[in-house]
Design a protein that fits this description.
Helices cover 56% and strands 6% of the residues. The protein is mainly alpha-helical and 389 residues long. It folds into two domains: 64-100 and 163-380, 3-Layer(aba) Sandwich (Rossmann fold), CATH 3.40.50.300; 103-158, no CATH class.
Amino acid sequence: MPFRLCLRSLAFYAYCWWQAITAVRRKASPVPLKRLRFLLIFFPCFLLLQSIHWIFWVLDAVLFPSTADVIVQRPIFITGIPRSGTTFVHRSLARAPGLTTFSTWEAVLAPSICEKRIIKRLAGIDQRLGRPLRRFTEWLMRRISGDFQAIHSVGLNAPEEDYLALLPFGGCFLFALAFPEVGELRDLAYFDRMPAKRRHQLLDLYHQCLQKKLHDCPPGARLISKNAAFGSWIHDLSENYPDAVFLLCVRSPLEAFSSQISSLTSARDAFGTNTLGIKTSELMRQIFQHNYAEIAKLAEEPVLQKRCRVLAQKDLKVDPAHLLTAAAEFAGLERNTSFTDYLTHLQPSGESAHEHSTASIPGDNTEFFENTAASYAAILDLECRIRPT
């Protein structure tokens, strides 16, 4: 089964590449050099890395069959609307004792158990040599992330979105920006609408990623996961993990949308797609509208709502200590002196260094605002919202 899955994933990425090449050949205008660089240099390197992941994924099944027995107990899922404080909430709560979460290096470089152990061994050797490999890797990450570093800090050991571990299987929405011609990648943003077979396959793969993460953790470790792209996964995750709790971050629609479009500029630049951002803006409008509407449906689901807490970004800015303390209590997090001191001393935040404006977004936002304003108001009225003191 793992071997067939890897072959299927390879075929899918080959299809994505061919669709992109076909689109390039159909274009009458000159193709941007960055697009060619991505398709002919970066993407083959990406496929090489995924090939390594696939090999070790198969080896895991042989060497660590006990992984299938790992139970994901009482996970904490942080999701909601992108650019609404999910990273801040995730990295703050991940400080609690007894928790584990994916770091950047695990999600991107080592989704399998074999890879995790090999990289840890290499890291030990690298440290004894003065960490030249780590310095080079961090330099390379800064080069690749470019301006995005100022919007969302990226570091090898920083807590990161674990849906990146689904990259080997075409399950990460990020690559919809690289291959806008492929509908299956765009559909990842509408998880609840996907065909049941594909949805269950991705849920199973994601569960295996979590099991592999927990395999070498101390007994009783709880997983805290942050994925702003999981807004449409809430119902499926709640069914798969009946003891899970959800922290949903939201923000004023136009502010969140503007910030998201601005933050995607570096990705579009790296992939060499949609130079003016018109197609990206329209795609994200539809996704945001869907996610706001999905979260607002909690008003009609009191049972699920009891397992959720809503954190509005405007409240996080005013009273982060109260909101995160309440979120930690709701999630049943353990407390020690360090974590308690951190929460207690959180201060209201000032203006973000990330500058963006709705006026710079291509297209008309009038309809978008009308469609999302009611959903956002309904979310703020939910009983599960944590309000500032």
